[in-house]
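Late entry, evening session. Most of the bench is empty. Finally got around to the prediction I had been postponing all week. Sequence below, unchanged from the version circulated by S.P.
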Amino acid sequence: MSREKNRSVLLVDDEAGIRTVVSLTLRDQGYEVLTADSAEAALRLFDEQAPGVVITDIKMPGMDGLELLAELKRRASDVEVIMLTGHGDMDLAVTSLRRSAADFLTKPVSDEALEVALDRAFERMALRAALREHTENLEQLVQERTERLLEAERMAAVGQTVADLSHAIKNVVSGLDGGMFVLGKGMETGEREYLQQGWDAVRGNVEKIRNLSMDLLNYARFARLDPQSCDPDEPARQAVEAMRHQAAALGCPLHSELKAGPEPAVIDAAAVQRALLNLLGNALEAFQERGRGEIHLRTSRCPGRYLEYVVQDSCGGFSDHAEETAFQAFASTKASGTGLGLMLVRQVAEQHGGLASLDNTPGRGALVRLRIPEPALDGN
């Protein structure tokens, strides 16, 4: 039985007469009474019966009432303890109050004073129980509301992603429809120009579908990081090597300056490499469209603070409008772009506890910075 619901009282006094008189009064007031002639016996009963309130004499042989009070509070901090004292022991009574006794009564104990003290003790217990129940219910309510809000936010995010993805697919389908229409015209008229235009449109939109599928797979793949200790320059080094032949074929200068390593850092190297490949790929496409510029990939380290990966190009940059939506899903100004590349870069940065930022000069070039705090993750 819980202490709050237990209406029993444990009476502790080494004098048999006082135990008898006070016990009769307590039973008349409707309480179940347990009695003990020593503090040691009281502790055994307290452990066995968990009485709601303990009434104890202060002066007893062996362990006295103050020592019993301290031990009871150690075992159950919320127990209500009422002290019995003689008229000459007021200093001890005050000391007991300072040590968290609920009240004290002077001998001989009047029925009215005993009733009032017990009423107050059990009322305090009931209030504590009600407050605890209210707090537990409130915590449960907050948890339930929080879970519902999180679920609503997840569903809203899923709905927005589905809507954006549907719009992106619709645009691709419209492009394919247009290309097939032009191809049909070319086949009807035998016009080679129509055939070429239609084929280019179909091929470009098929490429866009392929890119969209790959970006979606990469986005899902890096939804959960796998951080490991590694040379932080290694993902940048591999990204540059992967793009070097394509850059050479286009005639685009591709430079790297790697200064974050070789001291190890805890990062998801594959995720960082994928983010850098996206940035280098974007820069090469910008070079291909404009036919000018160069690309730089730089890494650096501020020990104990962050790692930084920077991809900078002088290939024209973003337009003002594109700059505003650069990191949004499915927002792209490129013919074969999916709008997920920079979103993936931001995802990788944020999952490492960092950030991705864009410095853009329309008509000149762009700089994307991926900054990861160090130590980035603890491997959990």
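Two things to note before I forget:
The longest strand covers residues 306-316.
The radius of gyration is 39 Å.
Will write this up properly tomorrow.
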